[in-house]
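Weekly puzzle thread! Below is a chain. First person to post its structure in token form gets bragging rights.
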Amino acid sequence: MAELAPDPLILAGEGWQDYGLVDSGHGRKLERYGAYRFVRPEPQALWTPKLAEWQAHGEFVPGSDEDGGGRWQFDKPVPREGWELGVGQGAGAVRFTAQCTPFRHLGFFPDMAPVWSWMGEQLAGKPDASTLNLFGYTGVGTLSLSEHGAVTHVDASKKSVAQARANAALSGMEQRPVRWIIDDAAKFTAREVRRGKRYDGIILDPPKFGRGPEGEVWRLEEHLPGLVADCRKLLDADSRFLFLTVYAVRMSSLAIGGLLAELFADLPGTIEHGDLAVREDGQGRLLPTAIFARWRRG
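Winning reply:
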């Protein structure tokens, strides 16, 4: 029986050559993405910035609506079509295009870097692993997983899947065994259950709210339990992991940890939960970014 670890964990990412959290505070954060620096809103940065002045190429100014809106303001030129960055080393090194998107993101989530490393550790010794990436976005995590075997990448956005395929080409990974699927994640997962499919690992990063390619409505609090229940049916006692991240919701990691504890009660292993965070450059403060819960067999 999978046991729920009582104490939360902090899974912290460190900066690397192409990315770093330079400073944070007063509800904002300053980050470096290669040669460019940007300021974005960060409500959890309640403290005072360490630097007296922030020099940045651009800043995302949020709208008045708590649930979205806003625009970029640029003080220095930034390539409209994006610029190339990289993450990881060796066979798992991934190249991708960073870009200032209308949704305040820059084409990937840097706090996920330690998650990709952790998944690789869970798949060690299994070179033919089969994994599923739901809400796969621009494919950086998918390409990292593809070092270990076949990956099914699912996202409802045609534009995101097209960017993911472009990132595969940029990384020289076009021949990796990846299925690129444009579909509603919940509908696709339910079909996989009916087909009797199984996976060695699943990662899912659902939004707070979203729409599928045919207008399907996704509300996290309403639809997450059913999706995770279907994901559980795609795993068995020989599977290695499930990793769930949740952003921008008023929810404790204990809540999603408890959900996994209920659904994974018949499998061996451990269920852990806690915060994702990014450390400021120079061994600075930890900035929380999301909550997570994960099941691992070992």
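Puzzle host: Confirmed. Bonus trivia for everyone else. The chain is about 20% helix and 35% strand.
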